[in-house]
């Protein structure tokens, strides 16, 4: 995971892609939403590691990050992560009304990322929300 996510070895996604995509596709959901990366991360890394895992998965990239954070989540302490303010914006909130949403992330650490995304989707009126992560 370290080599894939932080060292930019995009080919490693193929190690997990088939099985992870199968698990995601087996979920009973209306919309699959990958957790986004900041524009700074995208520029540095060149890819969104979550989207790289989603082979043959129809997803909706309707979750966006606010202005890029100066400190990466991976370098924050647990306490710092737990006090992070809402980092996301939901585009097209009307698309989620009465829908079952599946959030997809690569690593579940403290749960704060999924918490913030869940808050937005619930405020927008989604019917149900679940999540799948590759690692913990």
UniProtKB/TrEMBL annotation:
Residues 22-135 form the Phosphoribosyltransferase domain. GO terms for molecular function: glycosyltransferase activity. Gene3D superfamilies: 3.40.50.2020. The keyword Thylakoid does not apply. It comes from the Bacteria. The keyword Magnesium does not apply. Keywords: Glycosyltransferase, Transferase. It holds the Pfam family Pribosyltran. Belongs to the ComF/GntX family. This is Putative phosphoribosyltransferase protein. The lineage of its organism: Bacteria, Bacillati, Bacillota, Bacilli, Lactobacillales.
């Amino acid at each position: 995971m370290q080599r894939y996510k932080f060292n930019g070895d995009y080919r490693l996604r193929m190690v997990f892609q088939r099985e992870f995509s199968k698990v995601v596709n087996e979920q009973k959901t209306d919309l699959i939403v990958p957790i986004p990366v900041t524009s700074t991360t995208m520029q540095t890394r060149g890819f969104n590691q979550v989207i790289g895992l989603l082979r043959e998965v129809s997803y909706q990239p309707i979750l966006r990050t606010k202005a890029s954070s100066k400190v990466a989540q991976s370098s924050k302490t647990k306490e710092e992560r737990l006090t992070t303010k809402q980092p996301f914006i939901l585009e097209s909130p009307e698309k989620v009304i009465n829908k079952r949403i599946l959030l997809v992330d690569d690593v579940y650490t403290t749960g704060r990322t999924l918490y913030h995304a869940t808050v937005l989707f619930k405020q927008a009126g989604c019917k149900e929300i679940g999540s799948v992560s590759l690692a913990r």
